[in-house]
Amino acid sequence: MLELRLIDPNGYTVPTGIRTVEASAKDATKNELLTVDAVQDAERWSDFAKYWPTDYRVQITPLTTPRP
């Protein structure tokens, strides 16, 4: 399992941009975060800052199960 987080231009996680997926869905989910969620977040903040969807990045972290 992987956790994908959409990161805004200031380095913060976009609250609606967190996904937990299987490794096989990584590329499709990353594409969705960058083409859909980044656009929506940039538009939401357009009155306060000039964010461009291309300024966003996706952080990918492997999830591990803690041992008992």
- Globally, the shape reads elongated
Largest sheet: 3 strands, antiparallel
Total count of strands = 3
Instruction: List low-confidence stretches.
Output: none
Approximately how much helix is present in the residues? 25-40%
Strand order of the largest sheet: 2-1-3
- CA radius of gyration: 13 Å
Work out the helix count: 1
- Based on helices, strands and strand pairing, what is the structural class? alpha+beta
The number of domains: 1
Please give the alpha-carbon distance between the first and last residues: 19 Å
Order of secondary-structure elements: EEHE
- Overall pLDDT score: 91
**Proportion in β-strands:** 25-35%
Tell me about this structure.
The protein has 68 residues and is of the alpha+beta class. It has one domain (2-62). Helix content is 28%, strand content 31%. It has 1 helix and 3 strands; from the N terminus they run ββαβ. The protein has one helix at residues 26-44, and strands at 2-7, 13-21, 57-62. The protein has a 3-stranded antiparallel beta sheet, covered by helices on one side. A hairpin with a 5-residue loop joins β1 (2-7) and β2 (13-21). The longest helix is centred in the middle third of the chain and has 19 residues, at 26-44. It is elongated. The model has no long low-confidence stretch (mean pLDDT 91).
